[in-house]
Amino acid sequence: MDAHELGERVPSSTPPEADEDSNTRQFSLTPADRGAPLAIPLVSRYPQYRKLMIWLGWPLCLLGLVAGSFAQTLEVLILTQGVLYGLGFITFYYPILSMVNEWWIDRRGLAYAIMCSASGFSGAVMPFVTQALLDRYGYATTLRAIAAGLLVVTGPLIPMLRGRLPEAAVSSHPRTDWTFVRSTRFWIYSLSNVAMGLGYFFPSLYLPSYAVSNGLNPTQGALLLAVMSVSQALGLFCFGYMSDRRIPVDVLTITSPLVAAVAVYTCWGLASTLPVMLVFAMVYGFFGSGYTATWARIGTSISSDPIAAFTAFGTLNLGKGLGNVLTGPIGGALVGSDTVAGAYGAVKYQKVVLFTGSCMLLSGATILLYRAKDLKLATLVSRLSKQDSH
Questions:
Q1: What number of H helices and E strands is found in the chain?
Q2: pLDDT class for 241, splitting at 50, 70, 90?
Q3: What are the pLDDT digits (tens) for 21-51?
Q4: 331 & 367 share domain
Q5: Do 73 and 1 lie in a common domain?
Q6: Which of 96, 133, 160, 171 could share a disulfide with 142, CB 3.0–4.6 Å?
Q7: Considering the domain boundaries, does residue 364 fall inside one?
Q8: Which SUPFAM superfamilies does the protein's record reference (predicted)?
């Protein structure tokens, strides 16, 4: 499952022509996320072909990395490490997720969180490994080496993947029930999720350069990303666990972005020293990532039908993926030209900080206001009922 995330650690290893294009850094994740609403209903309807999908998608991922190593232009890189890798991941990942759904029901939030947190722990190591390979061998050899590593590590595990139900019990299922899209709750969560996705990726993209702008060295910038990755893994695990422990999903999805917003406005915006940036990396990584761990329970809160709930999970992937692909162009428009070390946002990143915090704030406030409206309505109905009884 972590193969895709390992591949995602490599986008900075781009050909010279693509080095300055921030859009490249986000592109390979996007096809996988945008394809979720199409892939999940297909996998759910034809679960008997999941093993075949896995065996088709896995080599496509590896081929995307190897083919990308020969890229000399941005267009070729997008087609290989972006489109080809993304299509391979769609075909590989969602059948596995469908199998996980069969094994984990009461603890599904925790199961999803464990899968996602694995990428966080790899993210604490892979930036250093990748950078060392890039410095010594260049981007082409680095991509081929990572593809070979994934072949060796993941290949032997694929035959072990299987669903809980026997093949005879997982023949074609009915079509996906899309009536959940008429639910107000679905659209509230979708709006909140898109807002989260629009702001979530900026710290991991700009924190290293922000650190350098405040006088830190590149190694310390890489350290901040490593600390954030570990915190993200812990946040995913904890929020996934709490979502299964009957803590209302609304409480978790309000807490996650609002605490992250406070961290952005204060710790990131005011940070000019390594200790403060480390605090930001830990707090933002933990609470910001926790939102994703609630997706499984958001799906089940929207629809009681397992296939529809899984599809709702896919639409949340889509929302965050759209935010991810927009990070590059939005960030390019927000980053300033003047740097003043010690100033709020180092001046150069001031708009990035404010935009990120505002997205987090909007994400949490959307659900908070929705729940407050429901609570007010419930209170009014209760009072009217008491008056009628008298």
A1: 18, 0
A2: confident
A3: 444 444 444 456 667 778 888 888 888 888 8
A4: yes
A5: yes
A6: 133
A7: yes
A8: MFS general substrate transporter
Q: What would the pLDDT profile of 176-222 be if each residue is shown by its tens digit? A: 778 888 889 999 999 999 999 999 999 999 999 999 999 998 888 88
Angstrom distance (rounded) from CA 180 to CA 303: 6
Into how many domains does the chain fold?
A: 2
What one-letter code names the amino acid at 82? G
The answer as to whether 164 is a domain residue is no
Q: Is residue 51 part of a domain?
A: yes
> Is the residue at 172 inside a domain?
no
**Eight-state DSSP code of residue 273:** S
Judgement on whether residues 204 and 314 belong to the same structural domain of the protein: yes
> pTM score > 0.85 for this model?
no
